[in-house]
Description:
By secondary structure, this protein is of the alpha+beta class. It has 2 domains: 2-72, no CATH class; 82-144, CATH 2.40.50.140. It contains 3 helices and 5 strands; from the N terminus they run H-H-H-E-E-E-E-E. The protein has helices spanning 2-21, 25-41, 46-72, and strands spanning 90-93, 103-106, 109-115, 129-136, 139-144. The chain has a 5-stranded mixed beta barrel. Helix 1 (2-21) runs antiparallel to helix 2 (25-41).
Amino acid sequence: MVAAIVWVVAAIGAVVIEVFTVELIFGLIAVGAGAAAVAALVGAPLWLQALIGVGVSAAGIAFVRPVAMRHLKKTAIGARTGVDALPGARGSAMTEITARDGRIRLRGEVWSARLDSDVTSEPVPSGVDVVVTRIDGATALVHPVDPY
């Protein structure tokens, strides 16, 4: 009975750690400790309890965790993230934008920008709304929303 309580305390400790790490490792260790507690309750010797706890934990980490992480971190099909999501976004010119340089405010951040020469070559004055056509390194290529 004492061994089962120790295993349950170990499982609770692993669950507490899992809450802070959210990596599904300590959660699976907690499952292994729970399995060892069940083994202790049915009277298994200590070496078998430990073997069951380690075996269940290792199997969970090796087989369950990869599948679970794949499902938890899945993004929608076709969802664009990071700089891939910026083409088509609207921003505002903070400085005059030319074919060589400029600054825009885009989604709360300041980006270096230049005109997309495929669309226009006329400088865009400060304060005009722009649309991002693509990202080149750390520079947004833009054109004005409404031609003036």
